[in-house]
Design brief:
This protein is α+β, with helices and mostly antiparallel strands. The protein folds into 2 domains: 209 residues, Lysozyme (Orthogonal Bundle), CATH 1.10.530; 393 residues, Peptidoglycan recognition protein-like (Lysozyme-like). The protein is 22% helix and 20% strand. The strands form 8 sheets. Strands 5-10-9-11-8-12 form a 6-stranded mixed beta sheet, sandwiched between helices. α3 packs across α8. The longest helix is centred in the first third of the chain and has 19 residues. The protein is globular.
């Protein structure tokens, strides 16, 4: 306690300077854009303590709000998807607009361009924080200490506007926190974090701790119940914004949109939940999903506050994954954000998503593992020609380890790597030099940030070439360091069969080849993962869809299953992720009474073949269990 008091005393003059508009007048030349890299500047922890004292905001409330907004990161002074800056996510944006979701290929994409959306006004908290503190808007954007003070000043104003006392009791700050985040659900999550506590190393190396306060119980306003039509738990207060099921040509029942009527899980078991990002604003995504000529998915989650809209009932089939088999067996969840700005996936969105996905997984019996909770970038291509058109979201910055902890299923394993491994790098320390985050300078390196993916090489050495993916890169197969190129990457939570070891290097079987990654004892990137492995027989084929052996109907061209033309050899081993039975949902007419489900006894195993999951027929492999 005495150390904390000394820290507050040492920083009091600094915050007074912030309030007077003279922040860092004598230190500005020594500060970097991130704001806290100078040895003469205070720690992030101290900045929260000082700002809380200066503006009479409970430190736990200030830390809790900031954690939900940014996970205490600075993101290098770059704006979020909703125009927010810094640890307190102070916003300044005239409008948000976009041209639809997930621009790119995939079998279910490209039939119609996503509709344009009108400009949407956003809150302007950055100018308001500047007025309250007297600090220049530019400094509030890039200086974490000033940014934190600005957030504290806003909270204090919201508390006064609610006619509540400034003071140390967190329970009195519920209304102010709700206004700051925008929803009662946001405030509920802030107080949940306050009760449980949190410790994290930020993107610029600052260790921040919010001590647990189990007795912190806010005086909460009555929430709005979930819309009756949604499949959400009531606590999430989801909004129902329906996607249209409509015949587009009155003379042609084969032309309709934007999803498929079905009867899941009674008719078809749901085996997967697919995590997407929108590559657009929330408003643009919601506008797109209401267009009958476009595509339909089940849920969209807003970044700034975790608000959820449902568009398609879970019983129905969405068109979202670019693979018809996965579509018919999955639930699609879109998250407002961009692969290249993935460091700004907010804690509010992570928590809302985890609560939703955890509920859906429990309701429909979907296993909580990386074989069934898939990123869109893990969905297989239905055929070799489709692989290069598949999508890359949510990308290498999505924090899978954190996400699975929120799901109540933390990823873990022993450190002695043997026959089967799980990729599990330290997210904060795992800084890969990606390119392509700035569309104007595609060869420039992305801002340094932790991530969930590791690079794979042809030999054990940091300068060895990256492994090839002839499906994603037809012809040369040559991989790049682009943030959008996952052809030589393995991601957190994915499991692989070990193909060799050399010192601190481990090889795994990946797309028919040995792929090497660095796994030093001092900073392990993988752990042992007991489970099952399949060994390929001589005639083994790799499939992107688990279809019946024979069909009495002909699927549309974009739903045809073909064996993948990767070169594989007998004896190669791959981690077994799950099992499927041959199934094809034939829905080619607006009249849903004519939709037919075809099944047979053909058995498949789902395997981790590369960055994506694929399928092999059980007759083409042998199975072993490793401890």
């Amino acid at each position: 306690m005495s150390n904390r008091r000394r820290a507050i005393g040492a920083g009091a003059a600094l915050v007074a300077a912030v309030a007077a508009g003279a922040v860092y007048a004598q230190q500005s030349s020594s500060l970097s854009a991130a704001g806290l890299q100078s040895s003469s500047s205070p720690t992030r922890q101290t900045a929260y303590a000082v700002a809380a004292k200066r503006y009479k905001v409970p430190e736990s409330v200030l830390l809790g709000v900031s954690y939900l907004e940014s996970r205490w990161d600075t993101n290098g002074g770059l704006p979020s998807v909703s125009g927010g800056y810094g640890p307190m996510h102070l916003t300044q944006v005239a409008a948000a607009s976009g041209g639809g979701i997930e621009q790119g290929g995939g079998d279910d994409f490209g039939a119609a361009a996503a509709p344009k959306t009108a400009a949407v006004a956003e809150p302007q908290t950055l100018p308001e924080a500047a007025r309250l503190t007297g600090v220049d808007v530019g400094k509030l954007r890039i200086n974490p200490v000033a940014n934190i003070a600005g957030g504290a000043a806003l909270l204090a104003k919201y508390q006064r506007d609610a006619h509540k006392p400034l003071g140390a009791d967190p329970a009195q700050w519920y209304a102010a926190v709700t206004r700051y985040g925008g929803t009662a659900w946001f405030a509920d999550e802030v107080f949940s974090v306050i009760r449980s506590g949190e410790t994290r190393t930020t993107d610029d190396g600052q260790r921040v701790t919010l001590a647990a306060d189990p007795k912190a119980a806010p005086v909460a306003a009555k929430g709005v119940a979930a819309a009756a039509a949604t499949d959400c738990p009531a606590s999430l207060k989801c909004e129902w914004i329906p996607a249209p099921y409509k015949q587009l040509d009155p003379k042609d029942p084969s032309k309709y949109g934007n999803h498929e009527k079905a009867n899941r899980p009674a008719q078809q078991k749901i085996d997967f939940i697919v995590i997407h990002d929108t590559e657009s604003s929330y408003a643009s995504a919601v506008k797109s999903v209401q267009d009958p000529t476009y595509l339909g998915w089940h849920f969209t989650i807003r970044s700034k506050d975790g608000h959820i809209a449902q568009h398609v009932r879970v019983k129905d089939v969405g068109k979202h994954a670019g693979n018809w088999y996965i579509n018919s067996k999955s639930i699609g969840v879109e998250h407002e954000g961009y692969v290249a700005k993935g460091a700004w996936y907010t804690e509010a969105m992570y928590r809302a998503s985890a609560k939703l996905v955890g509920h859906l997984a429990a309701t429909y019996g979907v296993p909580l593992d990386r074989g069934h909770i898939l990123g869109h970038d893990n969905v297989p291509g239905r055929a070799m020609s489709a692989v290069s058109q598949m999508h890359q979201d949510p990308g290498p910055y999505w924090d899978w380890a954190h996400y699975f902890s929120l799901l109540g299923k933390p990823l873990k394993g022993s450190t002695t790597v043997k026959s089967r491994v799980m990729i599990l790098p330290n997210y904060a320390k795992n800084k890969v030099a990606y390119t392509g985050c700035d569309s104007a300078h595609p060869s420039a390196k992305c801002p340094s940030h932790g991530g969930a993916s590791i690079m794979l090489r042809t030999k054990p050495g940091k300068t060895a070439p990256l492994v090839k993916d002839v499906g994603l890169h037809p012809g040369s197969g040559k991989a790049t360091m682009s943030v959008y190129d996952h052809s030589a990457r393995a991601s957190t939570g994915q499991t692989y069969a070990v193909a060799g070891k050399s010192g601190s290097w481990v090889a795994i079987w990946y797309l028919g080849q040995k792929a090497w990654f660095y796994n030093p004892r001092s900073n392990r990137t993988a752990v042992a993962a007991p489970g099952k492995i399949v060994t390929l027989k001589k005639s083994a084929k790799i499939w992107g869809m688990a279809y019946p052996a024979k069909l009495s109907v002909t699927p549309p061209a974009d739903r045809v299953a073909e064996p993948l033309k990767y070169t594989v050899a007998a004896g190669q081993k791959y981690a077994l992720l799950g099992s499927e039975t041959g199934e094809y949902y034939h829905s080619v007419t607006y009249d849903s009474t004519k939709h037919v489900l075809y099944k047979d006894s053909t058995k498949y195993y789902e395997i981790q073949f590369g960055h994506r999951a694929y399928f092999v027929k059980t007759s083409d492999v042998t199975v072993s269990t490793v401890g």
